[in-house]
Automatic annotation (TrEMBL):
Organism annotation: Actinomadura monticuli
Keywords: Oxidoreductase
Family listed: Belongs to the short-chain dehydrogenases/reductases (SDR) family.
A Pfam family per the record: adh_short_C2
Protein name, per record: SDR family NAD(P)-dependent oxidoreductase
Amino acid sequence: MDFGLKGRHAVVTGGTRGIGRAITRALLEQGASVTVCHRQENAEADALRAEFASREASARLVRADVSREADARLLLERARDAFGAVDVLVNNAGIISHLPLAEMAEDEWARVVDTNLGGTYRMIRASLDGLARPASIVNITSAVAKHGMPNASHYVASKAGIIGLTRALCKELGPEGIRVNAITCGIIDDTGQANPNGEEGKRRYAGMTALGRLGEPAEVADAVLFLASDAARYVTGAVLDVDGGI
Ligand code: NDP
């Protein structure tokens, strides 16, 4: 399917693994240029760098931690230097930990909220001057923001906060030609956050969906392509469920 993104420039946070990597590949396949960030040097970052080189892709990998303002600014600067104004910003980077509230120290709460919600705020703020007009921002959040989940209240609160941020900024930035939407992912297989409970847990989650299976990273990427494209030109403030009907 051609989403008409050829020649557009996208920035994807957390693109070395899981859903972010699928989004990056999908955007490249559409002919977009992509600037990707990751937090740490690891085998996944090396592999993506090698993949970019072998495809001679219009892509850059930048090490930047979205929980730091200076890194967010540096990432946007590097992106603009490489490929010019940014047409699409995908806020995908996210972390989780599993703890009951009683055992959740304040620094653990802050670490997760400041990466997921804080990182999304920081990236949008840092990008404003460098965004093309029109532009599309896609924030990756989670089905648990709507349904809840025990033992990850920091994560659930941060993901619900992203929905609020999306709705607030769609009103604030719409007049400037910037659309802001969110995707609530269900459990997506082959990712870092797929499921802490192994195969048995996956089977249980699959049974909770209307489609009877977990999602695939590429299925989230397809929804991103739609929201990034002109096919969604009258869509803003939307929260699109990609969760198999959980
Ligand atoms: P993964 O754990 O597989 O990958 C996370 C990516 O984000 C990595 O590239 C990682 O880079 C990067 N990252 C983490 N922290 C930072 C940071 N502070 N700054 C920059 N990059 C960072 O994640 P998933 O693919 O599982 O999840 C992607 C998004 O989708 C997340 O926002 C998650 O909450 C959401 N989601 C996922 C679901 C799932 O089932 N997988 C379900 C619902 C929502 P590095 O390797 O360098 O750490």
